[in-house]
Amino acid sequence: MGRYTGPKERLSRREGVNLHLKGERSFSDKNGLQRKPFVPGQHGNKRRARLSNYGIQLREKQKIKRYYGVLERQFRVYFERALHIREGLTGENLLALLESRLDNTIYRMKLAKSRNQARQFVLHGMIAVNGKKVNIPSYQVNVNDIISLTLQGERNKSLIENIEQNQGTKPDAEWLYFDYDKKEGNIIRIPTRADVPQNFREQLVVELYSK
Known about the structure:
This protein is α+β, with helices and mostly antiparallel strands. The chain has a domain at 101-187: RNA-binding S4 domain (Structural Genomics Hypothetical 15.5 Kd Protein In mrcA-pckA Intergenic Region, Chain A, Roll).
């Protein structure tokens, strides 16, 4: 199954929680979930059937997948990697791996207004890691990695505008640093569960995949 290209806020309505997929609109009173607080579809505003344990676990997995914008196969790979990390809980390690994706890092640094926009910046070769252009959104950042721009000009006008709008502020995550004047930042430490603002129940995903 390919990447979802439909209305982003429809996904938030399906999961019953604001996944902040629409940039600034997601944080305003105009977000889709607040305007239509029921699941999409012809019978969405009717009483919902009670979910089974499997259904609850499945919805939590979908919620995390959609929040970070990864596909099913990618998500399973992340889970397998988290499963083989000796330290920490599998669910927390899974979220740490997803947080450490380059596209999410760009979003957390406020260089993009949404993860989808961050993904486009990376795909178009606008971001460099340690001085080398990286065009892979799933690239895993590490401690002390330097994040910078590959070029400045008309090509990455939106990226420059986002940086200028955030001058005098800090990234949305304590594990990151970015100097909006120098247009350069770095990874201070590996993200932890406390760095994930969303109230996920990641243990349900572990239970789902452990069956």
